[in-house]
Amino acid sequence: MTICHLLRHNRTWLSPCIKLIGALLVIPSTIAFLHLQTIFQPANICFVGPSPTSLQSDDPFVFEASKLYGIYRSPSSSRNNGSTPLNFSSDTIDRSRVSFIAKQRLDGRQRIWNTFTNIILQRQGYPTLLSLQDDLMSTHSFTNAILFFDGIRGSWCFQDVKSNMKFCIGSESTGTSGVKENKNPYVLPRRLSENVKGAFPPSGPSNLIQSDNNSNQGSIYISCPVDGPSYLPEVVQNFWNGQMQKIRDNPNLEFLQIPTTSILILVNVLLAIIYFNNRTDPSLICKEYQKIVHENELWRSFTGATAHFEPLHIGFNMMSLYALGSELEPLYGSIPFLFYNICLIPLTTIVMMVMVWMQIRYTGDERLRNTKTVGYSAVLFAWMVVTSLERESTCPVPFMTNVCFKTYQFNMNDILKSATNSKWILKFNFGPLIQLLIAQVIMPRVSFLGHLAGIVCGFVLHWNLLPREVFYMPQVLIPAILMFHLWYVRRIISFQSRPDGYNRIDNDDALAIGTSAGMSRRKPDQTRIMIRQMRWIQRGMVVTTIMSILLFNSVGSVFLSQLLATAFMIFSSRWYFAERGQDTSNNSSSCALWKATIISLVLVILADAIQIPYWISMSAYISAKWSICNVFNLGAFLLLRFAMNFAALVVASCIITEIGPCRGAFEYVFGWVVKYGNMAHVVVGQQRTSNTAGFSAFQGQGVALGHA
Fold first, then answer.
1. Quick one: which of 104, 139, 225, 404 could link to 617 by a disulfide (CB 3.0–4.6 Å)?
2. Strand partners, 54
3. What is d(CA 71, CA 46) in angstroms, rounded to the nearest whole number?
4. In which order are the strands placed within the sheet that holds 145-150?
5. pLDDT of residue 139
């Protein structure tokens, strides 16, 4: 059956595919790009990196030009109209990396060998979102060079702060960029200068000409994402820039400048209204030791953290969230701040459960197993710790501004007598502990252990004791928690081969699998085709994971998230085929595995979609600091990676629908993914049968959020 035949005679899968791709790829990428524009536009940010057409090791001027690679940010908050010079600054470039790029020749063997040694040995790869966001936000107070517009020459010029040498931008030769070279080296090409107007330097490849020696030249690539090329339509770009400028000028719309904080507040308030209207019993969604630890209801970590049942409770929490978010979100960036908040929810729950376990063990009070807690306070206390450690002193007692506590700093290298050059400084402040005691006295019903868990996580976060790429990236942390739980607690996942055919997936099993209750609607030939699809998807995901380690950091979130998604797909398939010929309609173990697989795949696809605009917008800067491959190769690989993960998501949705209804919190959050994924699944040569009606989010009688 050819693809043309499928498109002509069986197009029921096309609409759900488009909806899934739009929801998981297009919309997140667009939002991430627009978020970057809100950072680039008011700060006049540009990126300068090496031009790949002129990296000649015998050109000494290349080493002078390498000093100017970096992120250049205007010190003013408003856009410059060109009447005054623009001063940009940067102090984030790895000088050794720039020297490595400058020494590379463009001949094939040496280039391949240098790329191989740099990727395999250094393991740098394409940077992650957190790495790029850190560099993007750290260019406020450092100055290596000044970038200004020289009106006499009609050109943009760099001035190195240390050597005081000045380099101006000329044009590329015809052979490298297709632009005719101007006779006056200080005049920009018309194609580039038309959009400059003194406000921004041009985007694209240009020559650097030393002001006192016109014969020396070195090429650079300048990228200004705001006025430069964009992969969004110009109408959309102009509309967004205009709306954001109105928001910045209107003090009543300040909450729109902190979108993550506003979304978190909106989610908490809407859930509180829904729970109130439905008269939801708090015991169905709260955090409870017995339910989470012994009854495997891990989803209570999120439902309990976002549940509020009293007006004062949600009022105080949301006011605190707005105050903390207004201060912290501009420092972290909206998307990383959202990731931190999502990850702090399970982290604070884990610390709280450990504290409850210790209290039960050493006090013998079994009533603590059924203690119920709700609210976002644990995450808020974590952020209170972070804000207090960023200040010189904190005054935690309301209306008593004289009662303040100083922030102490400890140089751990001096304490541990370490000889390393890096500074490891830990800060401590008693303010959050005082706030905890005050809250306990004023409101005795508040959860002491829940707030204390937030304080512990806040110190751990600020002290940077945990790897951020693992513990503060949802696409890694959440699947890792699920993997550990299914392996260590529920004993569903096994890393050892089993002699009963657990690892075997054969076409001969199609008849046995097709006779099971969960797949009784499929014919044997359909089942054989599906088995073949699962086999190729597994192989493709394994190959994609191996390729990911070559393009990305081996300890970074981009690779680790793909590794976990592939592992879940393999374990789920092994378990599914181990139950061949059996009634799997009520198989909670298989259902739990496939639910974890879908969660992992959705998070990987969303994370990749969010990172793509960062890689595209900051490509010039990335090429100056990180070991990377060609941008075209990266795009082709990302397309392959998305295709494999999307195919796995579609198959997993089809299987979990046929296993039986997996009700609970999973259905409310990921039910739409399963619904459209099941509709998008195409068995070649056969028409799709009607899908189970049980997977319709927010439809039918209300049920408890349990039943894993």
1. 225
2. none
3. 6
4. 70-72, 46-50, 213-223, 204-210, 166-169, 155-160, 145-150
5. 63
Q: What is the DSSP string of 388-451?
A: HHTSSEE--STT-TT--EEPEEEEHHHHTT---SS--EEEE-SHHHHHHHHHHHH-TTS-HHHH
Q: How far apart are CA 552 and CA 604, in angstroms?
A: 14
What pLDDT is stored for residue 555 in this prediction? 83
pLDDT of the residue at 103: 56
The per-residue pLDDT for 187 is: 38
Question: What is the 3-class SS of 494-513, one letter each residue?
Answer: CCCCCCCCCCCCCHHHHHHH
Residues 501, 502, 507, 509, Cα dihedral to 10°: 80
- Its sign, for the CA torsion 58, 62, 66, 69, is negative
Model confidence, pTM:
0.85
Distances (CA, A) of 158 to 59, 89, 192, 248: 19, 11, 17, 30
The CA-CA-CA angle for residues 5, 10, 14, to 5°, reads 105
- The CA radius of gyration of the chain, in Å to the nearest whole number, is 28
For the stretch 518-532, pLDDT in tens is: 444 455 666 777 778
Q: How many CB atoms lie within 10 A of CB 219?
A: 24
Proportion of the chain in helix, strand, coil states, percent, rounded to 5: 60, 10, 35
* Consecutive H or E run containing 590: helix 588-617
The domain limits of the chain are 31-92+138-236, 258-464, 474-491+510-680
DSSP for 191-254, written as a single string: HHHTTTTTTSPPPEEEEEEETTEEEEEEEEEEE-TTTS--SS-HHHHHHHHHHHHHHHH-GGGG
Range name among 136-140, 480-484, 578-582, 588-592 with the lowest pLDDT average: 578-582
Q: What is the token pair recorded at 139?
A: 């260019």
Residue 65: band (very low, low, confident or very high) from pLDDT cuts 50, 70, 90 = confident
Cβ of 480: how many Cβ atoms within 10 Å?
18
Residue 173 neighbours by CB under 8 Å, 6+ apart:
181, 207
Asked whether residue 485 carries a pLDDT value surpassing 90, the answer given is yes
Among candidate residues 551, 505, 655, the one with its CA nearest the CA of residue 593:
655
3-state secondary structure 106-132: CCHHHHHHHHHHHHHHHCCCECCHHHH
Nearest to 466 by CA among 457, 453, 455: 457
Counting residues of the chain whose pLDDT is more than 70, the rounded percentage is: 69
pLDDT digits 0-9 by tens, 142-172: 567 788 777 777 777 888 777 778 888 775 4
Q: Which pair of structure tokens corresponds to residue 314?
A: 């949600």
Architecture of domain 258-464: Up-down Bundle (1.20)
Is the distance from CB of 582 to CB of 590 less than 8 angstroms? Answer: no
Tokens for 587, please give them. Answer: 């198989």
Residue 438 CB neighbours (<10 A): 13
Half-sphere exposure of 93 (CA within 13 A, CB side): 29
Mean pLDDT score, 675-689: 65
The winner for highest mean pLDDT among 40-54, 267-281, 675-689 is: 267-281
Angle formed by the axes of helices 311-332 and 377-389, nearest 10°: 40
Contact (Cβ atoms closer than 8 angstroms) between residue 528 and residue 688? no
User: Which tokens belong to 199?
Assistant: 């406000």
Beta bridge partners of 394: 405
